[in-house]
Write a structure and sequence with these properties.
This protein starts with 11 loop residues before the first strand and ends with a helix. The strands form 10 sheets. The chain has an 8-stranded parallel beta barrel, surrounded by 4 helices. It has a 6-stranded mixed beta sheet with strand order 25-21-20-29-39-38, with helices on one face. It is an alpha/beta fold. The longest helix has 25 residues. The chain has 29 helices and 39 strands. The structure holds adenosine-5'-diphosphate (ADP). It holds the Pfam family FMN_bind. Its EC number is 1.3.99.33. Keywords: FAD, Flavoprotein, Oxidoreductase.
Length: 927
């Protein structure tokens, strides 16, 4: 095929006669920076302003045409006249430099999350949910509403014109409403808007017609109208490329100024016919109709350097849209003109200088580009370091780690020839993650944790060696180290404290005795309790702090320390916000035992909270370049003149080092995995399995006792009712919170499953068999990702009928069937006549497959620990603060009293972790 050579910097004239100064446009990208109500912010205006030099046009991210149309949080609105003023600032900012300002008009249709529209059902051509997990079933628009919708698109165009935009792009892509009308998958109407292809075409045509009409009424013939399309759909039935060409031809006949592919790469081939490698743009050029051939076509996807743009133009695109590279380089066009070679990354200290609004900075699209270069960056002696590490199965890996002066350059597997291909794939994936994050602290690949930990360890070791070498080379003594604050323990409490102290200006270091970050927090499953949060409000959940306080107090048998509990309850919503600001959003809500209201916040994916939390906190640790010393145990806190002056640490090789410090934050977790301590305080719990990770040995309590700390409630040890005994795997309370029941070997319920942990555990231990089964159905499984994990670990018995399930469990089948039928009746009546269960009567257990897991109680949480005040200062036996000593998390006693409520541990570690960081940093400033 022969192509014309177009020059990226040549002007181009659109069919309406408008000339663009060159062929570069900034691609529409979701910034999530609108206010919650869709108005625009100053940050957003500045973001566009600085990117508007020397390019043809900026296509501003999509504006929703009505209140049910927004497909993501922070979307900007074109749905009412009040928006015009704010939008006009964006238009002016873009036009001031001679670029054309175009804005997308869209409606998300069935892709809208009900949570974004006040819990309403979204609307669509037909009442068919999108074929994606957890998609809501939309309401079909009536014929009258379709007419109204067209009018709304018209009004949105009018507003765009009034705001001073040079044009609009009709967003017919990304499976939003316009595409939904054209798609045989989502449009199964039988009126004039649905059925055959020509009928399905009517809606896009009607949108074009009204847009043109509005342009005619309110603008002039120079108003630009573009159309964005997704070339194919995977679904069957679904839009195929020839359908797209058909649609574009019809639109072209009516007159358009450009069409715009929506794809991840300019030269992407078909996603439907995966055997055909021909780029779709080649097919487009070959097969387009004469009408369509007159319309310029924009390509998008992975354009970073001039060669990418030229390649796109060579294949027939008339213009190229540049996305992420424009976020990283606001003066992209100038740099390309100067023939710079760009890499798609953003230095972590550049957010403000690059005018990237905070919400966009945290958006995965951008987050993945950020390269850490903070000032505290550890200095390395550049070079190659060879490390030998092993995984849990004694597989040995010889890894060469190449370090630059302050960054990780590369890593290579020296003994690759002796390893299987999967290992090599894992290695390459982890290498990419490490090099991109410029840190060994990255998420492991699920199912290959131990291998990944070994790869990461090689990097940590190399870094530590080369750091020492660098210090020696500069004439320093690597064994003499001083920091403002040493944080002991890298669970949720330690990480939150370190982040906060760093943000308050302190120089922080974390020591962690295990080889991985995260402690027991990694295992947290249900979520994080908080009352009166924005997320509860969005879901229409009315809660109040007083109730939360009282329920926690009741659950804790009135033994909780009142001031600590009050601080906890009052600050829980702030802690949820604090996490959200750090990209750790817990927006879905469930419940746990002992709570009367849904207040257990968890990730939107409903995944277990622990891994999600630690992974998000680690990203924040990496961004701040906070040093984490793994396999390093704090062995002593040193005092002089009654204040903390140093922490002694011991590394993996047994080397002892003293770190000078002014303050220490002890966040070492509980002692649930220390049988001696458990039996010392509670002989009755000897030989009970523990759900805790190996590091939960209570060493922080001992460290603090040595410097005079008092302890409280040491005998209050929680056993969790639902632990699978062979694996000591904890079966999350969210399963019961999601609707599961507990039954005995007789197939009978025996307790209110959502009662507090101590009561449920007691009832199980009182059964003759001393174990029980947690039983649930497909509906509960669907809402709890944790179930996938249990299945993967082979902990679950499943069956197609309740009778089969009973047979497999060898329990009374008639008993089980009767119990479930009776429970289902309670769900219908929303009243549990037998055990007065008041929460989580969510759905009847009636959808196959059915699941059961045999469980019994296991040691789970140690409520007791050192004493602190609400400033997290560690108190001595006279209840006086020990200067420079702070503690947070499970190492502390008092918050939970005699029994901890599910979801309160995560809240505890974050709330008091933040407070410890704040207070310790403040202490440093004053000393
Ligand atoms: P929390 O939930 O309170 O944050 P976690 O159990 O999640 O507690 O985390 C505590 C971390 O502290 C664990 O990773 C544990 O290995 C670590 N740890 C415990 N004792 C020490 C110690 N003496 N030195 C360093 N790390 C420690």
């Amino acid at each position: 095929m022969k192509y014309d050579l177009k020059n990226l910097f040549d002007p181009i004239t659109l069919p309406n006669g408008v000339s663009l100064k060159n062929r570069i446009v900034m691609a529409p990208m979701t910034t999530c920076c609108g206010y919650y109500d869709g108005t625009v912010t100053q940050e957003l205006i500045d973001y566009y302003r600085v990117r508007s030099q020397n390019l043809g046009a900026i296509i501003v991210e999509c504006g929703f045409v009505e209140h049910r149309g927004l497909a993501f949080p922070g979307a900007i609105g074109l749905d009412s006249d009040d928006r015009i003023e704010g939008l006009s600032h964006i238009a002016q900012a873009i036009k001031a430099q001679g670029a054309k300002a175009i804005i997308q008009i869209y409606h998300g249709g069935r892709m809208v999350d009900p949570k974004l529209i006040g819990g309403q059902s979204p609307v669509a051509p037909s009442a068919i949910a999108a074929p994606r997990p957890n998609s809501p079933t939309p309401i079909a628009l009536s014929a009258e509403e379709v007419d109204e919708m067209i009018d709304k698109f018209g009004q949105a165009t009018r507003r765009a014109i009034a705001a001073g935009f040079d044009g609009v792009e009709i967003h017919g892509a990304n499976t939003y409403l316009i595409q939904q009308f054209y798609s045989p998958n989502s449009n199964q109407r039988n009126d004039k808007w649905g059925g055959n292809r020509d009928n399905r075409l009517r809606f896009p045509l009607a949108i074009l017609a009204i847009t043109k009409q509005m342009a005619k009424n309110y603008a002039n013939d120079k108003f630009i109208i573009g159309y964005r399309f997704s070339p194919e759909e995977l679904e069957v039935p679904g839009i195929r490329f020839d359908d797209t060409l058909y649609l574009l031809d019809k639109l072209a006949i009516k007159g358009l100024d450009y069409v715009h592919f929506s794809m991840g790469a300019t030269l992407r081939p078909s996603i439907v016919d995966t055997r055909d490698p021909t780029p779709l743009i080649d097919k487009f050029i070959q097969q387009r109709s004469p009408a369509l051939a007159k319309i310029p076509v924009i390509g998008v996807g992975n354009v970073v350097n001039k060669s990418d743009a030229d390649q796109a133009l060579t294949h027939g695109y008339d213009m190229v849209a540049v996305g992420r590279a424009y976020i990283a380089y606001p003066d992209w066009a100038d740099r390309i003109k100067e023939q710079q070679t760009l890499s798609l990354s953003i230095n972590s200290d550049q957010r403000v200088a690059l005018h990237i609004p905070e919400p966009l900075w945290r958006f995965p699209l951008v987050d993945s580009l950020i390269r850490d270069v903070s000032n505290h960056a550890k200095k390395f002696k550049a070079g190659q370091y060879q490390e030998t590490v092993s995984d849990d199965n004694q597989n040995e890996f010889v890894i060469n780690v190449e370090l630059g002066n302050d960054f990780i350059k590369n890593m290579t597997l020296q003994n690759a020839d002796r390893l299987d291909p999967t290992t090599i794939t894992h290695f390459n994936e982890i290498k990419d993650r490490i090099v991109t994050a410029n840190s060994p602290y990255v998420d492991a690949i699920s199912g290959a944790t131990s291998q990944c930990e070994a790869f990461k360890k090689a990097v940590s070791k190399a870094m530590s060696k080369s750091n020492k070498a660098a210090i020696l080379a500069e004439g320093g003594n690597p064994d003499e180290k001083a920091v403002d604050i040493v944080v002991i323990g890298s669970g949720g409490a330690g990480l939150a404290a370190a982040i906060q102290a760093h943000d308050d200006g302190a120089n922080v270091m974390i020591v962690e005795k295990m080889s991985i970050i995260g402690g027991n927090t990694n295992k947290a499953s249900a979520g994080m309790n908080a009352a009166e949060t924005q997320f509860q409000q969005k879901l229409g959940i009315h809660d109040n702090k007083e109730l939360f306080y009282n329920e926690t107090l009741k659950g804790g048998k009135y033994k909780n320390h009142p001031q600590l509990l009050k601080y906890f309850v009052d600050n829980a919503p702030n802690a949820i916000e604090w996490l959200d600001e750090k990209g750790i959003t817990l927006s879905d809500i469930t419940t746990t035992g002992g709570m009367s209201i849904d207040r257990t916040h968890r990730p939107a994916s409903r995944a277990a909270v622990g891994g999600f939390l630690i992974s998000g906190l680690i990203k924040n640790i990496n961004k701040r370049d906070i040093d984490v010393m793994l396999e390093t145990t704090a062995t002593e806190i040193r005092m002089e003149n009654n204040q903390v002056v140093a922490v002694q640490i011991k590394n993996e090789e047994g080397n002892i080092q003293t770190i000078k410090t002014k303050a220490v934050i002890v966040a070492t977790g509980g002692f649930g995995a220390n049988p001696q301590m458990i039996t010392h305080y509670r002989p009755d719990l000897a030989n009970v399995v523990t759900t805790n990770h190996k590091g939960a040995t209570g060493s922080g309590i001992t460290l603090l006792q040595h410097i005079g700390a008092d302890t409280v409630d040491m005998g209050e040890i929680q056993i969790h009712p639902t632990v699978e005994q062979q694996s000591a795997y904890l079966i999350s309370e969210s399963i019961r919170g999601g609707g599961a029941i507990l039954v005995s070997k007789a197939g009978k319920r025996f307790v209110n499953e959502l009662d507090t942990r101590d009561k449920v555990s007691h009832e199980i231990r009182s059964l003759p068999e001393q174990f029980a089964y947690i039983v649930f159905d497909h509906q509960v499984r669907q809402e709890n990702k944790a179930v996938d994990e249990y299945l993967a670990h082979d902990l679950i018995v499943q069956a197609e009928t309740i009778e089969q399930l009973a047979e497999k469990l060898a329990i009374d089948s008639h008993g089980l069937a009767t119990t479930i039928a009776r429970f289902n009746q309670f769900v219908t009546n929303q009243h549990d006549d037998d055990f007065n269960r008041k929460t989580a009567l969510r759905h009847p257990i009636n959808q196959a497959p059915y699941y059961a897991i045999q469980i019994a109680p296991g040691i789970h949480h140690t409520m007791g620990g050192v004493t602190i005040n609400t400033h997290t200062e560690v108190l001595d036996r006279q209840q006086q603060p020990i200067k420079g000593a702070y503690a947070a998390g499970e190492v502390v006693g008092g918050v939970h009293g005699a029994n901890r409520i599910g979801g309160n541990a995560v809240a505890d570690i974050i709330i008091f972790g933040i407070q410890a960081g704040t207070q310790a940093a403040q202490y440093i400033k004053n000393h």
